Amino acid sequence: MPLAVGATDMTGWTVQIAPLAWIGPSNPFGLSASDGSYFLDLSGYHDSSPFAGVLQASIPTTIGTTYRLSFDIGTDTRYDSAAVGIVATTGIDTATFNSTPTGLNQWQGFMFDFIATSATTTISLDGQPGANQAYLGLDNVSLTAIPEPSTLALVFGPGLLVFAAWRRFRKV
Predict the structure, then answer these.
(1) Confidence band of 27 (pLDDT split at 50, 70, 90)
(2) Taking the model in full, what pTM does it have?
(3) Which residues are CB-neighbours of 166 under 8 A, at least 6 positions away?
(4) In this structure, what CATH number is given to the domain that contains residue 97?
């Protein structure tokens, strides 16, 4: 299904920059999702630059908390002969992620950690133009808070102390 710039058919997400293709399991391209049944092709049906992006605005975040944005990039040697890329923007942080096609219907997972600087964060995932690209898959996008090391110590600390005492007792 083609989605035009400004489309909000995907709950919480808005298409930006250029049209994209929302592709399902019965597609004629020989491609499948990395997770679930549906995925995005940021090259759309026009298969050329500019590539599409998706934007999710005003996600509630806690200032000072570390978050992990994870997503999968899809490539396929039938459609791409060089690396495909996505620029991820989370509030004020930006990073570029590239995946080089080495086979058919290939998915590669990426992670991007950032610290929230406001009570809401905007996330943008935008396709980057490259040489000989006709497919740029995006799937399995998630955002999770990462516990601070001090929180992990509170959770695992008592168990580790018991284990350390048990090991010490066994040596005696």
Answers:
(1) very high
(2) 0.84
(3) none
(4) 2.60.120.260
